Structures
1.
Amino acid sequence: MQSSLHRNLVSCDSGTTLRLMLMAVAALMVILFAAGCAAPPPVPTDAQDFCPLPAATFAGWFQSGSVSLNGVVNPANSLNGGVPPTPNCGFYQWSEQMFMWLTSPAPSAYGGGAHIFDSPAFFDVSPPDGSGNRTFLAHSAGLIRAFALRDAQRGPHNLPVVADRSGKLLEFNPPNANLKPLVRDPSGQQVEIAHVRLENGRPILLDGQGNVIGAQHVATATVVPAAGQTVSPQLIVQKFLIDGIPIFIDPSLAVIDVEQGQAGDSSVLEAQTAANGSLVYYATMVNDVYAYFLTGVKDGAITTTTPGQFPTTAADLNNTIAFATAHGKGSPPFPDPNALAIEVKSSWVVAAGLPNLSSYITMTATIPTYNQSNPNLWTPTGQQTVQLAMVGIHVVGSTAGHPEMVWATFEHVGNTPPATYSYTSTTGPKTVTQNTSGTWLFSATGSAGPFNCAHMFFAGPPTNNIQSSGPSTGCPGPFTISPSDTLRSEPWGLDGSNASSNTEVISMNSHVRGMMASGDIRGNYVMTGATWTIFGSPPSGAIPGVGTNLLTNTTMETYQQGVSNCFTCHQNGLNPNGLSHVFGGLKPLF
């Protein structure tokens, strides 16, 4: 198959010949091959067909019944047969179709908008307030008002999370001025922390007289589940911010050792200066089915086939339609009800200055602004409305038999170089070696690392400052507020050596992008994987889920690659409250 991303062979200085890809947009050629030996292809075109996708099936996705340039695509029928029966390929096929649907031009039935997710059929979701609560915001086509610098990851109790040094994610209560930062010294006495300094990336605690406090430090902390409990409880620790350094203390008054480079509410990502040096901004949106389902459930008007789960059956959907109609949504109330509940989280950079802007999906948005005079501390100054370019998107949705939702992610091909990975080609096993040559949005040309080191973090309420990060394991630091070098460490959602799984994802990518019309803007985004659970069971374990269960997006989970996935934070017995990014803390529409 001739992919729209296929290129001719190019020789490097080493004499090694690499098969390169033809980018859908000619301008992107310069980006990938600007310096030295050409970078590996975004998607190999010679993978064995581990995930078949007939041309007639792909054409049937389009509303017109035939492939067309940037044409409108129908959503997968999540109510009945939305996921074809063959794992894992059926889930990847669902993910690809949903991505193409969301990024299609919005038909009139959606009420306008450049893309379906940019239409009044979707709702913006506000960033969490100081209590972790969010609200629905009616979406105006062409403008998202709820962009945030960083939306802290939330755990089962709707609290932000932090990774300890073992990689375990812990929920924490934000700083509270009414609480004293008390720890226990070796004698068991409680001592208040007055000051903190960092040595080799670890905090040194000082009392009011400047003496070092020999407080107990633990790499992680565990809680034994109660008898009969099937879901492990999440340990909740308390965060303090002392001398600008975050400290986390568990209920026993021991200090939890965390990576200081990731110790804020959330690390902040910045594009390379050679591009435009933009910070990365985030937005969360849900579709109309999701919004009315949530409102009906929280109002006690909707009960699902299985209590506490997202809609997956005709009865669930009919209850949601009836509720929306009764509250004046119209008849029919939804343009695409069989898509079921959809949640979208996307990442964006400022469009101005991008050398290949025409290869990005763009949107106007209101974003925060900062005083950048101090290289170690940026303070908020207000907001501005600008054009943004999409660099990543999580596509999440419920489907028949899967109330836990299928979680898929897509990235722009120019984001980051991939680490070494293997796959099965039509001529046998192949390995694509890590290569940072060329120009990338989030990695310096030819970088040798260190990779995925957070240079700064978002302090969160009440200051909402951006602060530079100290050193952490493998990251020399301290850093200034600056771009970091990012690597896609699990290029196709699992360990790079898993050739079979890699080939499945690559094969589906190759089919979809190869059959798109030349120049279709969606061809500049690749699926790096999708995850779900077996038979839709509640996720459990350190890294739950199947499919590509090391799934992360380098623009959203940049500094947590390889230690978690979507389900790591979002696991609980009640799926909407435990799995959705926003369900638990989101207020009803009315």
Note: The chain has two domains: 98-156+267-579, 161-263.
2.
Amino acid sequence: MRVVRPLPALATYILVFLATAFPPPGAAQAAKYEGRRIATIQFVPPDQPLEPGEIKDMLPLKIGTPLRMVGVEDAIERLYLTGRYEDIQVDAEPYNNDVIIRFITRDSHFIGHVSISGNLSDPPNRGQLANATRLDLGQPFTDDKLAQAQAGIRNLLSVNGLYESRIRPEFEYLAQAQQVHIRFVVDSGRRARYARPVLKGDLKLPEARVVSAAGWRRWIIGGWKQVTQSRTRQGLDNVRQQYEKQGRLEAKVGLDSLVYDDDTNRALPTIHIEAGPKIEVRAIGAKISQKKLRQYIPIFEEHTVDPELLLEGARNLENYYQSEGYFDAEIVPKEQRVTNDRATIDYLVNTGNRHKVAHVAIQGNRYFSTATIRERMFIQPAGLLQFRRGRYSERLLRRDVDAITNLYQQNGFRDVSVRPRIVDNYGGKTGEIGVYVAIDEGPQYTIRSLEIEGVKHLDVARIRDTLSSVAGQPFSEYNVSVDRDLILEQYFSQGFPNPTFEWNSKPAAQPHEVDLQYVINEGSQSFVREVIVTGLKFTSPSLVDRNILLSPGDPLSPSRMTETQRRLYDLGVFAKVDTAIQDPDGETSRKYVLYDMEEARRYSFATGFGAEVAKIGGCQQCLEAPAGQAGFAPRFSFDVSRLNLWGLAHSISLRTRVSTLEQRGLVNYSAPRFRNNDALNLSFTALYDKSLNVRTFSSKRLEGSMQLSQRVSKPTTLFYRYVYRRVSVDTATLKISPLLIPQLAQPVLLGALGFTLIQDRRDDPVDPHKGIYNTLDLGLAEHIFGSQRNFLRALGRNATYHPIGRKMVLARNTSIGNLYAFSYRGDPSQAIPLPERFFSGGASSNRGFPEQQAGPRDLVTGFPVGGNALFFNQTELRFPLIGENIGGVLFHDAGNVYTSLRSHPFRLRQHGLQDFDYMVQAAGFGIRYRTPIGPLRVDLAYSINPPRFFGYKGTQDELLAAGQEPCRTQPDRCVVQGISHFQFFFSIGQTF
């Protein structure tokens, strides 16, 4: 395929023709001096848009040579073709026996930043008005384009009911780069209201009903709504839907005019309606619901009836019936004539016998394995859960044959033949079919030699290293096209805008071998003259400069232009980043690269309302339900962010959440690309968190932290942080033995250094099918960091995903954590503050527990008290269940939260009601429904060996009054309780 160089703009050629056919003023005077020696060449004004060296190389006129008018005309043409000049005049002046040639020029101007200001009424917004100008960055600016821009703005305002608008353009010229920044000052004026619409055509509905359907009248307070483009469009759609409800699928509803009356400030709509007949669509010969007919027949979506849409509907119905096992289904559409304002469309359905795909076999393949070929096939044999009758249709069979053929041809088998064969009554069973695909591979063509010609500026060896078609490799046109794209991309990245690629091949001396030749025409190379940035108001220019990957003198690389654009977007402070080459059609080798910004709003606000239902640790005052009971918590959130602080892309945000379970406020300051390093991001965080009635206690946390993240590679990220916090427990909410309250309820100051490693090699983080995911989190709390307790916290996780065939995935996740206390004078088991301990169990760790209900418990009340170690292992077999979007999961979870890692974590049996250091197991079944935001997850788990424990039935005051040993003094209050065998979970996203 040849890449064709775009021609310069037509306007440029017209100017060149006029300049040469009708010489500019002074040219006739210059003709009098033809033959004289040129003493000097001058330009007026002296500062020219082209660089002196570029002008010198471009002009055919040279100092010291005789003056020729052909050279003058050629010079004018070349200067015009650069696109940098709007007008050129030539003057000549005698100097002794020589002549002075003087070019008097007027520069062109090019479109720069386009903005909208003034008194505006939304809609339309400023961005829509700017787009309506159709003034493209870097293109030549002319009076005609300005008039078109004003007309575009005025038209957009008019269709939004702003008929009395005033538009005034203002210009700012940047002489150095010949740019003009255009600001349109718009006064949108008052917005018109709708008048009662005029209805024309064949309505077949009462006028009042049509007017009501449009929705332009205000019913509560009377009168008519204001005119907007979206409201007008929605009104017409509402009217069309009203006719569709009557079965009039061919109804045509159009706006003939919207006439404004400035005296009344009303816009009068005139709507033309052709209702058309009522249309009934039926399936003759088989039962099918109207819902499915609407789903598969496109006339309902396209709002029209034509033969092509009817045939498309027939094909869709055939595919539907074939997917249901009617592989011989034939559908014929038949359109009836209109009678008494009714038309009937019949689909004559002959389903034939119902079949089942019992067997699919591949024969004759030697080069590719059967598994490799089956991966590319849509036809599937019947399965136990998915595709109960298999998946087959003639369309799918043709697609599979084409896919197999392309696979072989792309690997050099140019003469491959793929022949399908269908066997009825497979295995002697009526209604079952076998699909056989016979492959005659034929010979494989390979490349004996590759010759590359025309490469002058790039490294041939480097180009050759990237190619697919080299000596010894299979020969195919597909691989040649891949090589063409790779070669042209390398030239584009080095500033060659118009390279071309041609290839040819010829048979080599040996059979089935070819000699391949690539011929490249590089064309001219373009370079960056300067990078110009416009549109900045608050952002520091130095920030933008640090992210621009192009410098003056560099090759003009579109890929680096695009990468710069992406980097600027990634700063998060720009709503829009446009990039362009100024005057791309101008014939100059050094061009301006333009970046025009639109800064995002610096302040953003967000509010949210919601509620959550979860199992929590009982009520506020009583000690009931230590294993959790259902609770309802309304929730409100409010967030505010300030972007682009100091113009450096820094941001600060406040996030709050208030509910009956939690009050939380977080202030975060973020400094991305720390020290101009793309891999580093610095953040500071202040946190206030008060958790009410969660697990065993209510806690308060005041925290400040500093974190530096480092992107080591695409899958690997490191986090370094320092955290200082004060954690305290509300003693009135502690649901534990009075003996433990003094030790566990004391406020504690903690200072810790932390390190986190994340390695993500999954194919899809939302729903992975293969890969690996590792995390390691380490934290050291020590007195030298300001901590009152000294301990080491380690938590690691490893998850792997292994595909089994094409349909199933075996997923596994293992988590290990440990808290190690040191240099503590008291009881080492109490060294870890209660809020810092491990609390786990539930949907993301072990589904044999309710949320946060795993691990050691208070021996009197039965409420969890957390542990110093954890170990969990989850295994899931994920498989398709129904169709393409519903899948199933069989899972097994095992593990627990332990007193320590030395507490026999793999023991499977509980030794008494005071033993919680054993592995709890759960098995179950789940359903996954695929959605754009991730799979919806429903899991039903059965806990094989849930823990049992003592629980105190009474209030906290009664517990305190019972003394040191309440179970001895009040044995009737201490009863045996336990975790339920059955647990149910609902959430979004895979378990891990």
Note: The first strand starts at residue 38 and ends at 44.
3.
Amino acid sequence: MKSLKTSFSIVLCLVSLAIIVPAQTKTAPAPEKFPQLKYQKYVLPNGLNVILSEDHRLPLVAVNLWYHVGPANEVEGRTGFAHLFEHMMFEGSEHVGGKAHFKYLESAGASDINGTTDFDRTNYFETLPSNQLELALWLESDRMGYLVSKLDQEKLANQRDVVRNERRQSIENRPYGLVDEEVYHELFPKGHPYYADVMGSHADIEAARLEDVRKFFETYYSPNNASLAIVGDFNPAQVKELVAKYFGPLKSGPPVPKIKATTPPITQERREVVTDQVELPRVYMAWITPPIFKPGDAESDLLSQILGGGKSSRLYKKLVYDKQIAQDVEVYNQSLMLGSVFMIQATAKPGVKPEDLEKAINEELKDLRDKGPSQAELDRARNVILSDKIRRLEVLGGFGGVADLLNSYNHYLGNPGYLDEDLTRYDRVTVADAKQVADQRLGDEQRVVVYGVPGKKIVEDVPKTKAEDEKPLPPAKNPNPEAAWRATPPKPGPAPKLSLPTAAEFKLNNGLRVLLVERHSLPIIAANLVTLTGSDANPIDRPGLSAFTSAMLQEGTKTRPALTLADDVDQIGATLNSASTSDFSQVTIRSLTRNEDAAFDLLSDVTLHPAFDAKDIERIRNQRITDILQEKDNPVVLSRKASYLALYGPNHPYGYLESGTEASNKSITRDDLEKFWRTGYDPGNSALVVVGDITEPQLKTEAEKYFGGWTGSVTAHQPPPITNKPVRSILIIDKPDAPQTALRFASIAAPRSTPDYVDLQVLNTALGGLFSSRLNMNLREQHGYTYGAFSAFLYRREAGPFIAGASVRTNVTAPAIKEMFGEIERIREGQITPDELAMSKGAFEQSLAGRFETSPETAATVGDLFVYNLPLNYYNTLPAKIDAVTAPDVERVAKEYLKPDATVVVAVGDKAKIEPEIKKLDLAPVADINVDGSPVKATAEAK
């Protein structure tokens, strides 16, 4: 292996890893080396664990704080409390101010700002420019030490609403969400911390009182129950001083109560049937497997990969490919402290009974228990898992991903640098080990079986608490002494020079452009083959053709049948994907550097030599038609589908989702697919974008070897002009008993080539592009209507849409529509404030580095430069353009591109409950439409 640069905080240690290369490779692979996390760990006198890892690739720093508390620490009657409290942590502390946390960070150009709650922990994180590190430490330390005095009844009531909206959105209004939840109800007894999943019940969330919130903070949110990981571009000595300044004075809390819960084994199969508003039945099977990092945990991960970890897995081959009785199958092992959850879920094809699906799964499970996996299966599974863990070091949020991994290892094991030992435990597993775990842990009597079937959605909701029923409490005192100096936010350090990578470029003789960004920090390569033919090239009577063609590229080549191709990809631990968008199609591969030759071989084979086998075409056709059927289950997808059709009409490719329609997918022929590929995939119309651990001479060799013989005539396709003229209207798609309404506002806006792009981005950042933007602060924080509201300009080569959206409580659908129209009108007619302008410009400019944080992100960013014909140094020239934006510029583009009078609003919800109030608004004509976007009245007349 080539030597690696040491700028990143990961070095290599000499631990053997058997990554198997494809059979056609003659030479034996050299021993692989495991990455080892390089870090410093120390403990403050108050008990706070501090973990530091330097990385000077980009002027960014990730701050990641874990509190050792989650649902595992909850008590019966207060399910969902850890997650509710996570929300309270963003409500403002003594020296920061109410709802100011996001504003400070977004103004500083932070990205990836959030908090999450999992069964065993709660974390808070942000990635921001390295000169703003002190700001993050000020914010995180202030809410650790000075939050409780600002926890009041008004904030609690608001966040109860927000969390319950999140529950409606992520569980109750999501297809199969209630079925997923029931699996945990069956796995764990009532009263067990994992019984209620992470979100908890409406009743328990609503029952939370201010006294509970304060007690929870005092019990768990103290330095001695937390660990702070900082990764990125910093000076360790200076960081230690800042950590001591902000966290050192905070008092240690009382000893944290130990978790008393134990997980009883399942000794007899448990079964349940749950009805939901879904088109197809789904079968769930689940077992309790060994706790995280305990013996049997790695074996369970490997077994999940062998059973259902992709196209080379047993259940995919049997259920999806051979028998074609399942639309999809997924298997995973969720590693947890009180017992892990091994889950199989498979969605039945139309007309297939869940009993038949279960029978086929049982046959494969019995074979695995009786015989164990083959050595080849185990090797493929190991290669996939180990490669994925190495890639995830940067894919999981870049610097933030490394920080989270350090904290995770520290949380469970007290050893932030456990990565190499973690990888080693998979390397040690034998066929006999895997068979033993399958036999002992995955028995029929040790499992839960839940069917999710079409039927009525049953939601257990409770009324909102009346203000007079709340017990008033006097203000609480902070556990730490007053520190007046904290009231002044820290000033940023000297601005780091934003020097973003610029791709090197060369061309092959056939016209293929090759763009390279070298990155030798990890033994990883990301390669995207991008061609300028997307769904905008679909014939009017063939919507979905581009995506169908793209899907077929992964279904076998002239020398590799579909399952052979899947095996070859997994054999080197790579990931191979193909996709189509409005503007382009692409094939992507992610691989370890040692397998670069095999990876480019696979990439070129699927792009240049697709088989378009007749049997595979029919199998994929059937899958796509079923996917379209399942779109009816998802209110957000329905709102997108209807809005595009209303905006662009049925005679423009932009009027359809990538999936197309059921009729078009039925009518597409093999000749259509092959013609689209032959005319659209052309070297003169394409670019190979590569990011990672490879040099330009190496890439020239690989590109010439695998793409030099690619021939074709350039077809300079341009999307057709847009002629449809939408008018202001509100369209309702009926979803009886839906707990929420999915709202989508849409109007035709601008192409990516518009000279107003930068002004529009600044405008949207203020309107709906940030947590602290106008739409979200209004609908979520002020009114509690939704878990989140947003807006965006979706740029395409022709004029793309401006969209705004939110999923809101059913009973506030009408006022939410009024507020969203109001915010759009206000920013058109009013003046953006100096603070908003500064925040929007700062957030836009300072977040540019984040587009280059990981190899896949960098490849996508560079690929966009090719697609939209932008110079390779575009992002290095962008800051000056952002700095030049003025308030009048924002006002001008708001008036020009935000078009309330040509806006279509799609509302997917319970018509009987939402339509009367919407009509009372008298904001626009109201019409009912079907799930395909056609008028309900016209459909009835046709019958």
Note: The radius of gyration is 27 Å.
